[in-house]
Structures are given as structure tokens and as C-alpha cells.
Amino acid sequence: MSSQTAPRIEIYTTPTCPDCLALKRWLATQNLAYVEHDLREPAIAEEAKRRTGVRVAPITIIDDIHVFYGTFADQLRGIEAALGESRAA
Questions:
Q1: Residue ranges of E strands in 1-89
Q2: Alpha-carbon separation of residue 76 from 43, 58, 59, 79 (angstroms)
Q3: Cα(76)–Cα(72) distance, rounded to whole angstroms?
Q4: Half-sphere exposure (CA, 13 Å, Cβ side) for 41?
Q5: N or C: which end of the chain has fewer CB within 10 A?
Q6: 73: phi > 0 → left, psi -120 to 50 → alpha, else beta; which?
């Protein structure tokens, strides 16, 4: 019997970014909880840069291992694969 734990999902976004909105809508349709960080805050933007090496929106981090950035369409396949691994663990 396997115990499933929910993946830890963090997203770095801005309020007006269309890809950020698409990412949040998709996560909601998948019933996935996430922690959102607002890239408009300078300290958050610096944290994102330190953790990921990029300054773009959106950035998605799953279980502190998988990092995705770029358009939502570009991220989606990788996010689905990472979540598949996370759900199987």
C-alpha cells in the first residue's frame, strides 16, 4: 500500500501575465494546491533569481527539484511529467 503525498508546488508570477493566469487556472482544474510568490516584490524577484537563475514569469518549482519557466505551453509537458513522478512516489 503506497501513501501518496501531495507535491509541493511553488509558482512565481505577476498579476497581469497571461501565462501566469493560464498556469493558475490549470493548477485549479487539476485540484493542485500551490504557494504563489509575487515577482513584483524586489525580495521575491531576487529569491526567484537565486533559486532558478532566471527572471521571468511564470516560474514553477515542484518538490524543490523540478524547475520550469517560460510560457505556460512550454512548461506544461514538463509539469505533467514531474507531477506524474511526484504522484507515483
A1: 9-13, 35-38, 59-62, 66-69
A2: 27, 12, 12, 5
A3: 6
A4: 9
A5: N
A6: alpha
What span, in angstroms and rounded, lies between the C-alpha atoms of 11 and 23?
9
Grid coordinates 511553488 are at which residue?
A: 10
pLDDT tens for 19-58 read 999 999 999 999 999 999 999 999 999 999 999 999 899 9
11 contacts 35 by C-beta, under 8 angstroms: yes
Higher local confidence (pLDDT), 5 or 22: 22
Question: Element (H or E) spanning 81, and its range?
Answer: helix 72-88
